[in-house]
Amino acid sequence: MAQSQKTEIRANRSSRLAGYLVGYLMKCWGLTLRYEINGKPGVTAPEIAPAPVIFALWHNRIFTMPPIWRRTGGKNRKSVVLTSASKDGTTLATAMSMFGLGAIRGSSSRRAVSALIGMKKALREGFDVCVTPDGPRGPRYQVQPGVIKIAQATGAKIIPIHIHYTSFWQLNTWDRFVIPKPFSRVSVIFDQPHQISQDGGDEAFENARIALEKCLSDGCDDHRS
Hints:
This protein has helices at residues 2-30, 87-97, 112-124, 146-154, 202-218, and strands at residues 34-39, 54-56, 79-83, 102-105, 128-131, 158-165, 168-170, 178-180, 185-190. The protein has 225 residues and is α/β, with parallel strands linked by helices. β3, α2 (87-97) and β4 form a beta-alpha-beta unit.
């Protein structure tokens, strides 16, 4: 037992160290990029303080959002991100902390119930929640039902985020993770909010899921293959 606990602690320390390195890399990389920000719903305007919302973007686009979160209205909002309960989730949560973002641990594959409870609690306490609805394991570009459940239970609106790069690399991972090339231009678009009915049945729920999936897919500029 003592040996396994020691191994677990060492793994956590390694994951946290990796997170600091990832966060530092994201900060440095972000300084080389040129950003264009379009906040259609008004969430980026500092004079507007809307109710907490759910931000949704595809898993393979998360690399460039944290470095500019404060520039998109984040400095006037309290925000948390949903990360997995795995070691990779610890790395991501640590990296996000370097940008002033909190974390809720859990996912559709691990600790799903605690993740849902955590997101509900965060929204009710005034925090925005940022999710990657096709993460953490895919399928790529397919919205999982969790984000719709949270929006339905809390009444929070879902704001899709589209991110485009003029030049980028794609990794050979399940999500074809996208990394913009240094000095490329990054376009960040906050789309119109999706309001999920709290009274609809199964058909309305699925229609809402499909509508969000279509919106995010329509705003994606790379190939699905």
